[in-house]
Structure formats: structure tokens, C-alpha cells
Amino acid sequence: MDKAWQQKGLKEYPTEALLGTLGHYGLPVNEEEFRKLAETSFPLGIAQQWREKWKGTGPFKDFAVAAAVELWRRWLPDRVAPMEMAETLNGLMSALAHLLNGKQDAPVAEAFEKMNAVRARMPLDEKGAPQERFMREALAPFTEKQAEVFDSLAEALASSGHTAHAEAFADLEEFLLPDRKGIAKAMVRAARGEVDAATDELVKFTEDTQRAPISRLLAVDGLIHVKAHGRAAAAARTLLDQAEKANDIHLALDLVPRLEHVYKAQNDREALLELMTISARLEATHDKMHPGHRRHQHGR
């Protein structure tokens, strides 16, 4: 195995070369052992378990990670790997970005087809959502910029008149991140001009106690985003009161900066003053619950 693997990748190298290099740097691996590890881990998780034994340095420092990904591709071709999902999603996002930039022949249909094929093979939990461990590993390589593009893409497509693509991407977004269920599609509706209907939906989501707190918080963010400040303030304040009563201090604290943003937008000084009192009370409660753990910023 030569140092050029970093530039070329591992696809061209025979399996024997991969295994030989792993063994050379302290990791004798065989297919049976790998399959056993794959019962409970994905490639990055497998590489993490290998880390203690790994002796590779310099050009081979990260070889074990790349090898785990490549061996998964070869030995478990029927099982989608997180990296494959990430690459396919990135390809779709790239095609859609080209479309938004005016490239009418961007391969969007093909990219959606590939993404849907991967989606159909993804491991799901008992609720039919992607396994959290899988998603954590799949999204790990995403940069902050890529995450921002992902978050804004459905809305941008809707604003540009690409309604079908916007709805399809929002559906994908909600599948990959179930806490956004309904919210991404509401944002698409708002971007299409149906702001009142979208706002009504978002308010319902903030009130839905069956939703996880983070999901209700995201619905508040949606209301703020569409500048429905009055309804955002009412929803966030109700949610804050409920959170404080339920002793979910972290959720309550996460709502404070959102309310501050809305009250400033409304120029509601009285509400801001009251919020300062509430915030101080919540911080004091938090400090009692977690002595020595100061919250420097809010956000889940």
C-alpha cells in the first residue's frame, strides 16, 4: 500500500492490500470479525473501536477510518453506509444548488432518484425514523456551511418557483430529521406565499404536547422566521411557562433568547423587562440544579 491512497482513495486497491496494511499497523482484521462489529456499529464506530490498537502515523494516521468505510462497501454491499447517504445527499444538494443558480439542466431528477434509493435502504428505528446512530455518523462530515444550505434549501427552492422540488426536499428533510416533521413543509408553504396557513400549522406544532420539546422549539423558530412575531411571542411564552412548571429549565432557557428577539422586533420594552426577571429566575434555578455549570449561551 503506497502513500498515494490519500489522493486516490481506496477503491483501486485489492482487499488483501487493505487488510495487509491494517495488519502492518497493528490491526489484523478478517471479514468475519468485521461483520460481527457491523452488527452494532457503522464504519466510523468500527474505526473508533480500532483506535486503541492502531499504530499508523503520518500518511497512514487516518487509514483505519478510510479502510473501515471501504471494507463496509465491499463486504456489506447490501447495507447502506452512513458515508454513502452523506455523499448521496451532498450530490442532491449540489444539483439543487446548480438549479437555483440558473443551470436548468442540473441533474436534479437523477439526484433525487439516487437519494430515494438510498433512503429506501436506510436502517430505521421502531418508529420508522432513521436510526439515530446512523444519522449521527452520516452528518458528522457536514460542515456548518453545508448544514446551513441543507436547512435553507427547501425554502429557497419554493421561493424560486421550484415547488415540486421544494416539497420533495422538505419531505426528505423531515424524514432525516423527524423533529422537523411538518415544519419544513410549513416553511415551504410560507415561501410560496401561504404565510397565514403556514403560521397556523406552526402554532399547532408549538402546542402539540406529543412532540419532543426540541420540535416545539423549532416550530417557534419557524414562526420567528416568517416574522409572525405576535404569534411567535404568544407560543414561546406559553411554552416557556409550561417548561418552567415541568421543571424543564433547559427548554425554558432556550426560549429566552427567542422571546428577546421577538420583543425587540416588536419594540415591547415592558415584555423585555419582564423577560429579564424571568431569565434571572431561570438562571438561578439552573445554577441550583447544576452547581458550577454556567450556561454561557442558550441553544439545544
How would you portray this structure in words?
This protein is mainly alpha-helical. It folds into 3 domains: 5-75; 80-193, no CATH class; 199-300. Helices cover 68% and strands 0% of the residues. It is globular and about 70 Å long. The model is unreliable at 296-300 (pLDDT under 50).
How would you briefly describe this protein structure?
This protein is mainly alpha-helical and 300 residues long.
Mean pLDDT: 94
Q: Please write the string of helix (H) and strand (E) elements.
A: HHHHHHHHHHHHHHHH
The amount of beta strand, in percent, is under 5%
Helix/strand/pairing category: mainly alpha
- What's the overall geometry? globular
Number of H- or I-type helical stretches: 16
- Radius of gyration computed on alpha carbons: 23 Å
Low-confidence stretches: 296-300
Largest sheet: none
What's the total number of strands? 0
The number of domains is 3
**Cα distance spanning the termini:** 44 Å
| Helix percentage | 55-70%
Provide key terms for this protein.
single chain; 3 domains; disordered C terminus; globular; mainly alpha; 300 residues; 0% strand
In terms of topology, how is this protein built?
Layout: H1 5-8, H2 15-24, H3 31-37, H4 43-50, H5 63-75, H6 82-100, H7 108-121, H8 132-139, H9 144-159, H10 163-176, H11 183-191, H12 195-207, H13 213-225, H14 229-245, H15 249-266, H16 269-289
Helix pairs in contact: 2-5, 4-5, 6-7, 6-8, 6-9, 9-10, 9-11, 10-11, 11-12, 12-13, 12-14, 13-14, 13-15, 14-15, 15-16
